[in-house]
Amino acid sequence: MATQLSAKQQECVDAALEHGGVLVKYSGGFWSCRNADMKTIMHFQAPDWSYGTQTIRALIKKGVFRVTKEKTWEGGSYPVQVEVTSDWISG
Asked: Distance (Å, rounded) from C-alpha 9 to C-alpha 77?
């Protein structure tokens, strides 16, 4: 595949593939696998491992992830679930 990924982006894709190719958004902007093990950080719950929204957005823009679920409100929408594209897997 011709798309160049940073080390962090490649790590994110590899983590998604290890968990069925899907990542979901948790409160606080954390992206991890479904049913992730959680830990407490400063009085709130976060996944044991996660990636940030900027990493996810970059991978969507590069065509590595596609948005499979969004939340919508009056002002617009935002992704809450992504999956690795079949082009990326087969590429």
From this structure: 23
